[in-house]
Write a structure and sequence with these properties.
about 450 residues, alpha/beta, FAD/NAD(P)-binding domain, protoporphyrinogen ix oxidase, domain 3, 3 domains, five-stranded parallel sheet, about 35% helix, disordered N terminus, binds flavin-adenine dinucleotide
Length: about 450
């Protein structure tokens, strides 16, 4: 214990019932929706700033998102933005950015996004085109704990796995499709196969993934958590939860704030932190869950922001960005052509690119020195995107633990959580049943609804 630290029991009114640990987008959304339903809560955040992985750096000449760079929003999420009075801050992704480019045989090629385009384009070999069409008629199978790579190779073929699945999975999960489980990442694939006998048939019959659009905010993604935090009445920042005990149906939470030990009692407790901190928080409640959570992998990831003068760009940057299949042995897993997606990120005579180096398939590249990372990225931009000269600015941000892997270790953690017999304990975070911002928001909204139906929860 630090010198000068003392222990104090928080003078909480008996009203405070729901404790939430962690003010990332999950904890914030949950707190906001509990507040809207008049349910007493207290949100505890270790840092002096909220938002967790959501971070934006704003300077005179640029806006850089250091974590998530876009959010897929449907009507429910847009209504949430409206409630927060930030709908006028929204910017929608440029329509051209729907085009995705994949690196194949020495250059970026547009990925065909419809069956007629697929047949016309030379992105896939003739053999693969036939294999894709055959998916409609391929017999269905039930495979226990199937990985994404196994599933896509079984339903389509290896070329589709290598050149579509691999780069997309790297883009979303920074993960390895040979390890990620279908049932945890894209359970919809299993559902379509089971219900329609074919993924493609199912996609056509079920009408695709619904009407969602990609957004960010004029001043970057951090606008969003900041707007929620400003509306919350019961948020304590600089408060690190160190221990949780479960005694007589109550959660006794011990936290450290400005060198003071604080203690809180809650009847419901929501853990909205990454799995690696959730692991130490639940140690006293369940050593088994704690152990399983400690095994959830979070490979590191470096985000490299590069700004060039527009006159140096000799190629076209008309799309969301370029993804690199692992089989092509590129240095980065890909780049978002950020200023082509959200044009206000840099002055109009400049461009901003965001590259990703790391994840479970690019660890060796991640551990390179900063100057090596910068040189490799710049060299590849020169070669692949025809961008000449030196960048006006290049900056690296490293996440030592970036994205939770939805693999068998996470599956084991879910199994331990399911065995838990503790009423009133919940998990709500990017590692728990949905990694995207929209999943985190939807899961938090649903949890607020579930908690609001509990007896005696209202003040
Ligand atoms: C580099 C990167 C790019 C991404 N890009 C996208 C994207 O473009 N689109 C998208 O939809 N998703 C993206 N994601 C995923 C998405 O950002 C995350 O899944 C999501 O932000 C997780 O939010 P969360 O609230 O669950 O957790 P976190 O953001 O991890 O928040 C947890 C909070 O808990 C706090 N905390 C931890 N321990 C304690 C403690 N002991 N006591 C109190 N507080 C504690 C932390 O300080 C933090 O504020 C990206 C993720 C990364 C890393």
């Amino acid at each position: 214990m630090c010198i000068g630290m003392y222990f104090r029991r928080q003078e909480l009114t008996p009203d405070i019932m729901v404790g939430i640990i962690g003010a990332g987008i999950s904890g914030l959304t949950l707190a906001f929706h509990l507040q809207e339903k008049n349910i007493p809560y207290l949100l505890l955040e270790e840092k002096d700033i909220t938002g967790g992985y959501i971070k934006t750096e704003i300077r005179e000449n640029y806006i850089l998102d250091i974590g998530p760079n876009s959010i897929l929003a449907d009507e429910e999420i847009i209504n949430f933005f409206k409630t927060l009075d930030i709908e006028n801050e929204l910017i929608e992704a440029n329509p051209n950015s729907k085009a995705r480019f994949i690196y194949k045989a020495g250059r970026y090629r547009i990925l065909p996004d419809s069956p007629p385009r697929l047949l016309k384009s030379n992105f896939f070999s003739f053999k693969t085109k036939i294999s894709i069409l055959r998916e409609f008629f391929r017999k269905t199978e039930k495979v226990e704990d199937e990985t994404l790579a196994q599933f896509i190779t079984r339903r389509f073929n290896k070329e589709v796995t290598d050149y579509v699945l691999n780069p997309f999975v790297t883009g979303i999960y920074a993960g390895n499709p040979e390890k990620l489980l279908v049932k945890l990442t894209f359970p919809i694939l299993n559902d379509l196969e089971n219900k329609y006998g074919s993924v493609l048939k199912g996609m056509i019959k079920s009408g695709g993934s619904g009407r969602r659009k990609s957004f960010n905010f004029k001043k970057g993604m951090a606008t969003f958590p900041k707007a929620i935090a400003e509306k919350l009445k019961n948020l304590h920042v600089n408060t690190k939860v160190e221990k949780v005990e479960y005694l007589n149906g109550q959660f006794k939470v011990t936290a450290l704030s400005n060198e003071q030990k604080l203690s809180y009692d809650f009847s419901q407790l929501v853990i909205a932190t990454p799995a690696f901190t959730a692991s130490s928080i639940v140690k006293n409640i369940s050593p088994d869950v704690s152990q399983a959570l400690s095994q959830v992998e979070y490979p590191p990831m470096a985000l490299v922001h590069t700004i060039y003068s527009k006159e140096n760009v000799k190629g076209e940057l008309n799309g969301f960005g370029g993804l690199n299949p692992k089989i092509e042995n590129k240095f980065a897993s890909g780049s978002i052509w950020t200023s082509s997606v959200f044009s206000n990120r840099v002055p109009t005579d400049q461009i901003l690119l965001t590259s990703f180096v790391g994840g479970s398939q690019y660890y060796d590249q991640y551990i390179s020195e900063d100057h090596q990372i910068k040189e490799n990225i710049t060299r590849d931009f020169q070669k692949d995107l025809k961008i000449e000269g030196t960048p006006l600015m290049q900056k690296i941000h490293r996440w030592e633990k970036a994205i939770p892997q939805y693999d068998k270790n996470l599956q084991a953690a879910y199994s331990e959580i399911e065995k838990l017999q503790i009423k009133g304990l919940y998990f709500c975070a990017g590692w728990y049943k949905g990694i995207s911002l929209s999943d985190c928001i939807k899961n938090a909204m649903q949890l607020a609804k579930n908690i609001s139906t509990l007896k005696d929860i209202h003040s």
